[in-house]
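Hi all, posting the design record for the shared folder.

TITLE: backbone redesign
STEP: 1 of 1
STRUCTURE INPUT:
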């Protein structure tokens, strides 16, 4: 196996935003527009994912799996509409989970986060 490459490292959180292991890429903690309405946060998270993918030469088309975390899982239809716009029919497998985020701002702060697995073919 080739070397495991970790990037977008946050020492304070002990967290790698991107981990490349062979042809598989793990992208964690994609968020954006925290404190704004759910649609803005979902778009912000996908913007963050897109930026991370671009930093290693990939696109959304390379995403094969996503874990989507919601403060309120009833916002799944909002996310589905955004996925339809961004993925152009090439949808990844996904699961959605409702959680209480341990994030400053409480119930008015973080509403959505996503983690992704991409394939470098």
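Okay, here is what came back for every position:
SEQUENCE:
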């Amino acid at each position: 196996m080739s070397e495991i490459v970790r990037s977008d490292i946050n020492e304070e959180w002990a967290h790698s935003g991107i981990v490349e292991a062979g042809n598989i890429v793990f992208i964690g903690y994609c968020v954006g527009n925290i404190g704004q309405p759910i649609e803005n946060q979902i778009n912000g998270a996908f913007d963050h994912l897109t930026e991370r993918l671009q930093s290693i030469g990939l696109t959304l088309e390379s995403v094969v799996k996503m874990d989507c975390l919601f403060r309120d899982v009833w916002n799944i239809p909002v996310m589905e509409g955004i996925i339809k716009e961004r993925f152009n029919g090439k949808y990844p497998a996904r699961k959605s989970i409702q959680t209480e985020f341990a994030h400053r701002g409480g119930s008015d702060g973080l509403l959505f986060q996503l983690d992704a697995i991409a394939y470098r073919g």
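COMMENT: The chain has a mean pLDDT of 93.
Let me know if anyone wants the other runs.
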